[in-house]
């Protein structure tokens, strides 16, 4: 089966004053196309840092990452946005919605950035918001949405353009059981339909049955 993400020897070190803090250390990770995998671990174990390196948001201090056939480690900052647009959909724990834009506009902007024709973006955005149960909230601003509704807008935005890889940081953390199940089923459907992949950082034991594999991260290192 085709490898979607192949990471070797990943290490990320932050400088805090005169001290080096190792956030991720010697991580090898290979994820196949068509898989939904989870990354678990206590707070501060390096999960979000690892996800950010996989998604070409952070550069590793050491190691290398291949996304499909592209070695992204040596790419310049100017080249990385193209890789993110081409391959990834991101679900951030803090939503990262644009406050002045409605739910519909927050999704549309993702399609705009991926080069979709203007005449198609509204229809596609509405379908995505309906898919996550927000048909009645498409014209609401983020300030008028609950935390769970904001999370669902963020998930609809991540699904825009049918990305080959979804990276999700606690996607069900702000959702009740029914909504969380809907979101995971939607992610699984996307992965199956598009032969895509999903990497989910989670503490939510309710979604374990939907995961193909789970990696345990502790002190920046994957434990068996």
CATH architecture grouping = 3-Layer(aba) Sandwich
Largest sheet, spatial ordering of strands: 6-7-8-3-9-10
Provide the residue-averaged pLDDT.
91
Structural class: alpha/beta
Tell me the CATH topology.
Rossmann fold
Low-confidence spans? none
Radius of gyration: 17 Å
Number of helices: 6
Oligomer: single chain
Number of domains: 1
Shape field = globular
Query: Order of helices and strands, N to C?
Result: EEEHEEHEHHHEHEEE
How big a fraction of the residues is strand?
Answer: 25-35%
How many E strands? 10
What is the helical fraction, as a range of percent?
25-40%
Largest sheet: 6 strands, mixed
Question: What would you say this structure looks like, in words?
Answer:
- The chain is of the alpha/beta class and 224 residues long.
- It has a single domain (35-58, 74-223), classed as Rossmann fold, CATH 3.40.50.300.
- It has 6 helices and 10 strands; from the N terminus they run E-E-E-H-E-E-H-E-H-H-H-E-H-E-E-E.
- It has helices at 47-54, 80-87, 103-113, 118-131, 147-159, 177-194, and strands at 3-16, 19-32, 36-40, 62-67, 70-71, 88-91, 165-169, 197-201, 213-218, 221-223.
- A 6-stranded mixed β-sheet has the order 6-7-8-3-9-10, sandwiched between helices.
- Helix 6 links the parallel strand 7 (165-169) and strand 8.
- Helix 3 (103-113) crosses helix 4 (118-131) and helix 4 (118-131) crosses helix 5.
- The mean pLDDT is 91.
Topology:
Elements (H helix, E strand, L loop, with lengths): L2 E14 L2 E14 L3 E5 L6 H8 L7 E6 L2 E2 L8 H8 E4 L11 H11 L4 H14 L15 H13 L5 E5 L7 H18 L2 E5 L11 E6 L2 E3 L1
Parallel strand pairs: 3-8, 3-9, 6-7, 7-8
Antiparallel strand pairs: 1-2, 1-4, 4-5, 9-10
